[in-house]
Protein: Integrase zinc-binding domain-containing protein
Amino acid sequence: MDSTSSGESLLPSVEQKMYFQFALQNEKIENLITYLQTGSFVVGLTRNQQTVIKRQASLYTWDSMKQVLYYLGSRDGKKKVVIRDPDQLTRVFHLYHGNGTGGHSGWRGTYEKISQRYFWHGIKEDIRHYVARCKRCQRFTPFKTMAREVKPIKVKSPLEMTGMSLIEKDETATKDTHDEEDK
Ligand SMILES: [Zn+2]
Structure:
């Protein structure tokens, strides 16, 4: 759980914080998985915790072959791989924000790309924080940010959005990842 396999120190210090959240989340997730697998609760859970797990169970499904937990509650109706391993999170960030096809797009673009396939609690906030702290984004200010800074007008929409979504579409189209399977 603590292995630092990737040599690149792209990830900002916020990563530590996310790892911590992951650790907390992980216990709950493991309890949920146990319930999905066996139909019974981990010993020692309170009534309350059991109720929560029961309620959550309808939103998740466990693939015992792949050892992957899927989230079914997304608005777009697609099932999402639940990220529950910090290393997996790191890879996802590298792939969808960093060197892979990420191209260091803004947090919204990064979020859209990642959330098409993955889910975890606090995903939006984590991505927003992550992108805001990304060392490379800070060093090489992307054109989108520069454009926003140069223009004194508060354009938050049509052009900017179109530009972003075009780029994102392109990047996602070229990338078909099976990240969750490479264990
Ligand atoms: Zn970046």
In short: The domain at 14-177 is CATH 1.10.340.70 (Endonuclease III; domain 1). The pocket of zinc ion is lined by residues 97, 104, 134, 136-137 (CB under 6 Å). The helical segments are 14-38, 47-57, 86-96, 107-117, 123-133, 135-139, 143-150, 158-174.
